[in-house]
Amino acid sequence: MKALIQRVKHASVVVDQQCIGEIEHGVLAYIGLGHEDDFAAAQRMIDKILTYRIFENDEDPAKFGKLDKNVQQIGGGLLLVSQFTLMAKTDKGRRPDFGGAMAPAAAQALFEQLVDYAKTKHPNVATGQFGADMQVSSVNDGPLNFLLEI
């Protein structure tokens, strides 16, 4: 499982000209699911995303400007977007190989479990729509981007 996370000032997902998910200051997380992934891995990934310290601590002068707070501590939003292309193999040739991605039906079920788990751990969770043609907009804050792997 991989997650590309971005610290954002704002992020939203539009499907068929309808905004279906939106957050203000927080984390936009693109989630890639592989063949071996399961609910335990999904739980570990959500726990890691929610506790990953990518926000500055502006309250403690000794830690001013340091990445010392996580999205839960700042009360930020979490926007989860399924992104099978994160699982692409790109080391050979000029075309991505998506053979490492979980099959769509299994991936949808696991992604929904991941989202449900995230909602039990954090009050401000939004999502895209699995398998849809989505337009994702974001204002990257920093910019800060990290690739997390479980």
Automatic annotation (TrEMBL):
Catalytic activity: a D-aminoacyl-tRNA + H2O = a tRNA + a D-alpha-amino acid + H(+); glycyl-tRNA(Ala) + H2O = tRNA(Ala) + glycine + H(+)
Keywords: Cytoplasm, Hydrolase, RNA-binding, tRNA-binding
Alphabetical list of InterPro entries matching this protein: Daa-tRNA_deacyls_DTD, DTD-like_sf
GO terms for biological process, alphabetical: D-amino acid catabolic process
Subcellular locations according to the entry: Cytoplasm
GO cellular component, as recorded: cytoplasm
Motif (Gly-cisPro motif, important for rejection of L-amino acids): 142-143
EC number: 3.1.1.96, 3.1.1.-
Domain observations: A Gly-cisPro motif from one monomer fits into the active site of the other monomer to allow specific chiral rejection of L-amino acids.
Family note: Belongs to the DTD family.
Purpose: An aminoacyl-tRNA editing enzyme that deacylates mischarged D-aminoacyl-tRNAs. Also deacylates mischarged glycyl-tRNA(Ala), protecting cells against glycine mischarging by AlaRS. Acts via tRNA-based rather than protein-based catalysis; rejects L-amino acids rather than detecting D-amino acids in the active site. By recycling D-aminoacyl-tRNA to D-amino acids and free tRNA molecules, this enzyme counteracts the toxicity associated with the formation of D-aminoacyl-tRNA entities in vivo and helps enforce protein L-homochirality.
NCBIfam families from the UniProt entry: D-aminoacyl-tRNA deacylase
Quaternary structure and partners: Homodimer.
Protein name: D-aminoacyl-tRNA deacylase
Lineage: Bacteria, Pseudomonadati, Pseudomonadota, Gammaproteobacteria, Moraxellales
Gene of this entry: dtd
